[in-house]
Write a structure and sequence with these properties.
The chain is of the alpha+beta class. It folds into three domains: 113 residues, Golgi alpha-mannosidase II (Immunoglobulin-like, Sandwich), CATH 2.60.40.1180; 146 residues, Jelly Rolls (Sandwich); 189 residues, TIM Barrel, CATH 3.20.20. It has eleven helices and 35 strands. It has an eight-stranded parallel sheet with strand order 3-15-18-19-20-21-22-23. Helix 8 links the parallel strand 21 and strand 22. Helix 4 packs across helix 5. The two termini are 27 Å apart. Bound molecules: alpha-L-arabinofuranose (AHR). Alpha-L-arabinofuranose binds next to loops. It is an enzyme of class 3 (hydrolase). Belongs to the glycosyl hydrolase 51 family. This is non-reducing end alpha-L-arabinofuranosidase. GO terms for molecular function: alpha-L-arabinofuranosidase activity. Keywords: Hydrolase, Signal.
């Protein structure tokens, strides 16, 4: 093959092309990225919230008693906050009995590490007494121990630190009253001190780091379907997820498990800031999933029109919360949470893959017009339905065109062949219409693996996103995270359990694109010795230049089983270093565990590079 650069046809492309899609699906939030180790800390799990009639899915979930002559029950009279109604009352007739939490599939702790314990408590009998807090291993041996201060007779928060003396994957947390009597407890919490960037109420360090390593330019949250929920009662309302943890509104999420809202809007925004990514919150367009309840539990329709003004205000309030001065109503709430400076929000998504109906259009238009009028500085991203249902896509685009929505969110999960055969998808787009955020995509094979075949077809398609980076502003693979044994959807980008992070081959494709992005696209003509269309479609090249370093980055995808020998013509580029970095991801199509390897290669104004069969190569060349 010969590959010739045509620098005179270079164009500016988006500097936000690769980001991430974070949805609380497959235990991505509670039990996942959110570092809380206690399951059901607020005793708010509810039987009616769990599909499948799981009788254990109630306020007692994950809690038990260890010891004699003691009992515990759930109460809701005089709670710490009306949004957190349930708490536990522990009655002890013989000192030594413990209230035990099993964590999310156990509690994983490391020797030498410190853990922050906290609890809201009020003693009922006697008038004072302390709580012994400990962690135990699988054999009930104590591996960490501490004590609270004496508990008062009104609700107060108590904190203590545990230092662990043994690494245990399946520890339990025990709360042991050191008195005979009765005590009420709520928001029983345990966090590692070494969260990502050391944040309080923070994120699991290893998972957050794996995400940060993609160098995502934006983070979309909180979904996906979680954003619009499966009924009016179940929409993700941003303002119920900020403020003190005990005042947030927990609920069942659309994927049928509990969402504590501990990982809420403040924590999402802070994570974005910590990794240098733009926050991209997606808010419901006033309608739940498919606005006809097709997800299984939904109510018909959308927010009643009589309540829409209030809802529109809620959307506008988000901008005041994120960007407003600390003396504004919502800006003050952000400042009180520890962030006096604005977050500098630039994008808002309205709607997620909604069924495009009159109900949707009426509500979306209201929200869009209000945002346009009050906050013209914010880029609003509309939704054009799931691509595979056809009409929503077209009708969504019609609305976006009519309203001149700046950007629309497209979703498609397709077989690798679709990505291979639709490389001209965006070449054909009308440049005068809304820009595109490809918010959800992934290559799907039967059995839903994430393997070299899916990863390379995604890489191939991503070269077309770079080529069309003048209209495709953003893209994100979906979903991002999935906890083993709790998988709602596959494939995902990163699998994990309590102790391990397991990136997929598709993750390395995203990481290579994220770490090797550029703001200038340099077209390249590619000629293969074979002129067959089916062969030509399996080899792709994309060349970008990174403005910050001046590096020219060549991405080469070969989805053929055989090696392809390429002659690269760089005569019009000023190469500054004859040694370039080369990273290659390759393997058999069904390979799920290949890792990229990095070496150096010699480059010149003309040089040869052999693309291995089934491979993705990134060559990073210094230029001046
Ligand atoms: O990414 C998983 C799901 O796929 C998202 O929640 C939804 O938007 C889409 O249907």
């Amino acid at each position: 093959a010969s590959i010739k650069l045509i620098p005179e046809r270079s164009k500016k492309i988006s500097d936000k092309l690769v980001g991430i899609f974070f949805e609380d699906i497959s235990y991505a939030a509670d039990g996942g990225l959110y570092a809380e180790l206690v399951q059901n800390r607020g005793f708010e799990y509810a039987l009616s919230d769990k599909s499948g009639n799981d009788p254990s899915w109630n306020s007692y979930k994950a809690w038990s008693l260890n010891g004699e002559n003691a009992s515990f029950k759930i109460d809701s009279v005089s709670p710490i906050h009306e949004n957190n109604k349930h708490f536990v009352v522990l009655e002890i007739a013989e000192i030594g009995a413990a209230l035990v939490n099993e964590g999310f599939d156990g509690i994983a702790v490391k020797e030498g590490n410190r853990y922050d314990f906290s609890v809201f408590a009020k003693i009922m009998e006697p008038k004072k007494g302390k709580l012994l807090i400990r962690l135990t291993d699988e054999n009930n041996k104590v591996i960490a121990e501490t004590r609270t201060k004496s508990i008062a007779t009104t609700w107060k928060k108590y904190e203590a630190v545990l230092t662990v003396n043994k690494t245990v994957d399946n520890a339990k947390l025990e709360v042991v009253p050191e008195f005979n009597g009765k005590v009420a407890l709520d928001m029983i919490s345990l966090f590692p001190q070494n969260t990502f960037k050391g944040r309080k109420n923070g994120l699991r360090e290893d998972l957050a780091q794996a995400i940060a390593d993609i160098h995502p330019k934006f983070v979309r949250f909180p979904g996906g379907c979680v954003a619009h929920g499966d009924g009016l009662h179940n929409m993700y309302r941003w303002n119920r997820t900020v403020g003190p943890l005990e005042t947030r509104v927990p609920q069942r999420n659309i994927w049928n498990y509990h969402q504590s809202a501990g990982l809420g809007y403040f924590e999402y925004f802070q994570f974005c800031e910590d990794i240098g990514a733009e926050p991209l919150p997606v808010l419901p367009a006033g309608v739940p999933c498919q606005n006809s309840g097709t997800c299984g539990h939904g109510q018909q329709g959308g927010i009643p029109m009589a309540e829409m003004d209030e809802y529109v205000q809620e959307v506008l309030d988000l901008i005041e919360w994120a960007n407003g001065d600390k003396n504004t109503k919502w800006g003050r709430i952000r400042a009180e949470a520890g962030h006096p400076e604005p977050f500098n929000l630039k994008y808002i998504g309205i709607g997620n893959e909604d069924l495009i109906t009159d109900i949707f259009e009426e509500r979306f238009t209201m929200i869009f017009n209000a945002l346009k009028e009050k906050h013209p500085e914010i880029v609003v991203i509309g939704t054009v339905g799931p691509f595979y249902t056809g009409t929503d896509y077209e009708e969504g685009w019609d609305i976006a065109t009519k309203l001149q929505v700046p950007m629309v969110d497209e979703h498609y999960y397709q077989p690798p062949g679709w990505f291979i055969h639709n490389q001209d998808f965006y070449d054909r787009y009308d440049r005068s219409k809304s820009k595109v955020y490809l918010g959800e995509y992934a290559a799907h094979l039967p059995g839903r693996p994430n393997n070299i075949e899916t990863a390379l077809s995604e890489a191939l398609y991503m070269t077309t996103l770079e080529r069309n980076g003048d209209i495709v502003e953003m893209s994100s693979y979906a979903p991002l995270l999935a906890k083993e044994e709790h998988i709602n959807w596959a494939p995902d980008l990163i699998y994990f359990n309590n102790t391990e992070v397991k990136p997929t081959v598709g993750y390395y494709v995203q990481k290579l694109f994220g770490q090797n992005s550029g703001e200038t696209y340099i077209p390249a003509e590619i000629q293969l010795s074979e002129n067959r269309e089916d062969i030509k479609k399996r080899v792709a090249v994309s060349v970008v230049q990174d403005n910050a370093t001046n590096d020219v980055i060549v991405k080469l995808v070969n989805l053929l089983p055989a090696e392809v020998n390429a002659n690269l013509d760089f005569t019009d580029i000023n190469i500054a270093d004859s040694e370039a970095g080369l990273t290659v991801l390759k393997g058999k199509p069904e390979d799920k565990s290949a890792l990229p390897s990095t070496t150096k290669i010699s480059v010149d104004s003309e040089f040869e590079y052999k693309l291995p069969g089934y491979s993705f190569s990134v060559i990073r060349i210094r230029t001046n």
